[in-house]
Amino acid sequence: MKLKLHHVNLATENVARMEAFYRDVMGLEPPVSDLPNLEKGKGYAGDVAFVSDGHIQTHLAQRDVMAGFKTGQIVNPVSTGHIAYRTDDLAAFKAHLDAQGIPYSDWAHAAVTGWHQIFFYDPDGNVIEVHEVQGDQA
């Protein structure tokens, strides 16, 4: 079970303004590969833009304080944003969290096609995502 930083998600009320800032001021570009295929009909239908430094993506997501309620999940990854790691063995990572007594919300594929995502809080309340790419997207 290896973790690798994949993306940082920033929640915003104005995706276009944030995208312009990160492109024009920070010099980031749209990622050329590994873009998520959003599942707009399964609980989160907000606008999202993607920029990258060529290695780490930044996802600029429209804030939705109700996304957790809509999907029946405790952890809402688009109320304040989150940091995301990719793993090669999500089942082992979930077992690790269980052994540590860390509760998590298992969003499965509710937000991104082919990504099995879980979300949990760090000790200060920051949201962390860990996901595994599954199927033909791996």
Short description, anyone?
This protein has 138 residues and is of the alpha+beta class. It has helices spanning 15-25, 67-71, 90-100, and strands at residues 3-12, 37-38, 48-52, 57-62, 82-87, 105-108, 112-113, 115-121, 127-133.
Question: What series of H and E elements makes up the topology?
Answer: EHEEEHEHEEEE
CATH class: Alpha Beta
Low-pLDDT segments: none
Count of discrete structural domains: 1
Count of individual helical segments: 3
What's the mean pLDDT score? Answer: 86
SS content category: alpha+beta
**Proportion of β residues?**
35-45%
The CATH topology name reads: 2,3-Dihydroxybiphenyl 1,2-Dioxygenase, domain 1
Fold and architecture overview:
With 138 residues, this protein is α+β, with helices and mostly antiparallel strands. The protein has one domain: 2,3-Dihydroxybiphenyl 1,2-Dioxygenase, domain 1. The protein has three helices and nine strands, in the order βαβββαβαββββ. The strands form two sheets. The protein has a seven-stranded mixed beta sheet with strand order 3-4-1-5-9-8-6. Strands 2-7 form a two-stranded antiparallel ribbon. β3 and β4 form a beta hairpin. It is globular, with a radius of gyration of 15 Å. It starts with a strand and ends in a 5-residue tail after the last strand.
